[in-house]
Amino acid sequence: MFERFRQFNLKLQPLKFEFLRKEVAYLEHIITDRSVQLDPKTTNCVVQFPVSKEAKEVKYFFGLAVYYRCFIQNFSQIVKSLTNLLKKDTIFLWTGHCQNSFEELKRLLSQIPILQYSETSRPLVVMTDAIGAVLSQGKIGADLSITYISHTLSKAEKNYNTTEKELLAIIWAIKQFRPYIFGQQFTVITDHKLLTWLFTLKEPIARILT
């Protein structure tokens, strides 16, 4: 590693290095030789975060949650009510849905989720549904999560039928996970069995092709 630094003329600050450590705290994360997880100090702040009646404080909490979205499955769906609340020109009204989103985020982050590093020697698994996906590694059923992603359907996408939405999720997930899966074999898992119908199509539907 140091030879590469010399090769590209990169200068290092010794006082900022930690050698022979199996675990370090960095940017509100705990990084080990096998995984990355939230720093317990951060999760304590999340758990103790009070219910707010002001948009400014909700934006702060929302920003904190967004920073850790890769640890949370179906993040965009969970925060939907908060996202709508913080839209421009929206009257600030804290509803029961907002409270549920708030409490669910606190619960999930307080569990100190752990994400594994990707290893080329272990099989990759992409599991999707219509609103999100998880990339994991290992034997199916005992696979360990690498990262989570989720998204909100556009106005046009909401008009897709269920099969089209599930297919869209797979295509979108593969594009998002490209840095991890490019050049490697991986298995896609979906709970929508009708997608196997696509293998029987002799003339694919135009919208599916695009």
From TrEMBL:
Enzyme class: transferase
EC assignment: 2.7.7.49
GO-annotated molecular function: endonuclease activity; RNA-directed DNA polymerase activity
Hydrolase listed as a keyword: yes
Pfam families: RT_RNaseH_2
Domain of life: Eukaryota
InterPro entries: DNA/RNA_pol_sf (IPR043502), Retrovirus_Pol_polyprotein (IPR050951), Rev_trsase/Diguanyl_cyclase (IPR043128), RT_RNaseH_2 (IPR041577)
Keyword Glycoprotein (UniProt): no
Residue ranges occupied by any Reverse transcriptase/retrotransposon-derived protein RNase H-like domain in the UniProt entry: 94-188
Entry keyword set: Endonuclease, Hydrolase, Multifunctional enzyme, Nuclease, Nucleotidyltransferase, RNA-directed DNA polymerase, Transferase
Protein name: RNA-directed DNA polymerase
